[in-house]
Amino acid sequence: MTESYSDKYWMRRAMALAMQAQAQGEIPVGAVLVADNKIISQGFNLPITGHDPTAHAEIIALRRGGIQLQNYRLLNTTLYVTLEPCVMCAGAMVHSRIQRLVYGASDMKTGAAGSLIDILRHPGMNHQIEIIGGVLAEECSTMLSSFFKQRREQHKALKKMLKAQQQKMS
Question: Would you name the residues annotated as active-site residues?
């Protein structure tokens, strides 16, 4: 008998992928596409290292899922993402026909699953997606906040170093 895993279990898998993104200098977002309690595909953010503005964790997982299932329609699947999807990713989810989205942290600036706009349940769309937000939200938010805090500190240290070098040269 196959064990049934919870949304928290799969979100932890997505968080592990987000940590891989962070290790590569990317914004820590991870995504896992699941069907019948099995991973179909997964991905993490790669737009910086891949020089590709579309290389979000969700897009990578959806692309790989289509290849794995040999179908652009990813029916009866759930996508687990550590951060609420943006408009681009939400549009791709609608077109792929996933059944459910489960996300961790909300994104008040660009979230397209209800925080800023709700693409996934918009009445004009030809497919609507069940949304469950806030799964391990605190852990996902902390990961992102820590990343951006560290990035700000690195930029601040770099500015300070450059200023000191300029003063030496004067």
Answer: 58
List pLDDT tens digits, range 3-36: 679 999 999 999 999 999 999 999 999 999 999 9
**CATH for the 7-144 domain, from 3.40.140.10, 3.30.980.10, 3.30.70.100, 3.40.920.10:** 3.40.140.10
Please, which residues have CB within 8 angstroms of residue 69's CB and are 6 or more apart in sequence? 35, 40
For the chain, which residues make up each domain, given as ranges?
Answer: 7-144
Binding site: residue ranges? 56, 86, 89
> DSSP for 95-137?
HHT-SEEEEEE--TTT-TBTTS-BSTT-TTSSS--EEE--TTH
DSSP one-letter code for 83: E
Q: Which residues are annotated as a binding site for Zn(2+)?
A: 56, 86, 89
Are 24 and 149 spatial neighbours (Cβ–Cβ below 8 Å)? no
Beta partners for residue 30, in sequence order: 44
pTM > 0.70: yes or no: yes
